[in-house]
From TrEMBL:
This is Ribosome biogenesis GTPase A. It is found in: Cytoplasm. Residues 11-178 form the CP-type G domain. It comes from Oribacterium parvum ACB1. Pfam families: MMR_HSR1 (PF01926). Keywords: Cytoplasm, GTP-binding, Nucleotide-binding. GO terms for molecular function: GTP binding; GTPase activity.
Amino acid sequence: MKIQWYPGHMAKAKRKMKEDLPLVDAIIEVIDSRCPNSSRNPEIDILAKDKARIMLFNKADLADPARTKSFMESFRKQGFYTMEMDARSRSSVKGVSKLVMESCAELLERKKQKGILSQSIKAMVLGIPNVGKSTFINAYVGKATAKTGNKPGVTKGAQWIKIGKDLQLLDTPGITWPKFEREIVGLNLALIGSINDEILPIEELIFYLLKYLTRYYGSALVSRYGETLQGKEDALEAMDAIAVKRACIKKGGDIDYTKVSRLILDDFRSGRLGRISLEHPMKWEEDSQMEV
Ligand SMILES: Nc1nc2c(ncn2[C@@H]2O[C@H](COP(=O)(O)OP(=O)(O)OP(=O)(O)O)[C@@H](O)[C@H]2O)c(=O)[nH]1
Ligand SMILES: [Mg+2]
């Protein structure tokens, strides 16, 4: 199942991003902690080669904490300044200033040697749609400056926002990229709500999610949907059992797969299934070969 979403307004946003890049010292990449690999735009690495790089692991409240730690460590080793957060909480985002200053320390030192005394930093906030960029900026500024919403594509244009006297942030519209190199990337982005829900084959998507959950998070299924899920290794059997349990049955007695799929997707996205990550730090290669 191939999922792809790269509407015209994103191509336009990318052009704007390229234009704005020379203006900034640092890139703050907001990613979704539930799937750090899938929620990183691979094009950013090429475009932002010589910038300080900060990676904010957002929605950490919904992700598997041990996996988040492990992912952060591995990105740190690659030169990123990382931090986990729940962008809805002010206290959670307050460490960002320190991180930005650390990441730009060398740059500020170079400026100082050239006689430039200003310590002012400009950073671009980037990320895929619905990952929480605007929510983060609002919590950081301490007021609702940027528009937010629980669907992809809320921010339409780039906007500069001043934080204190030394930092300016550029909020940008979420962008995906023209081709997801692995099928699993499209699936994960669809599951976390970064792709327009209207184009999704929801039953197939949830079939994949159940395949993944029965492999890694069987106990989450049992605690949410009851003992009948115990030991279920087959995704379709699990789906049927959940449908029966939650009365997702059509008039003639057939299972209502659309209804049960919506219910499971809602439970996953809202965290009612527990803290679940869609990627395993050590098994990314293996999982991304999973047949869907
Ligand atoms: N649970 C949880 N929800 C979050 C977090 N951060 C943001 N959200 C929610 O995610 C949704 C999307 O947030 P936005 O800030 O609009 O996302 P965005 O990245 O600006 O999206 P676009 O402008 O569409 O690219 C909103 O419903 C937020 O409340 C978080 O850390 N945890
Ligand atoms: Mg936004």
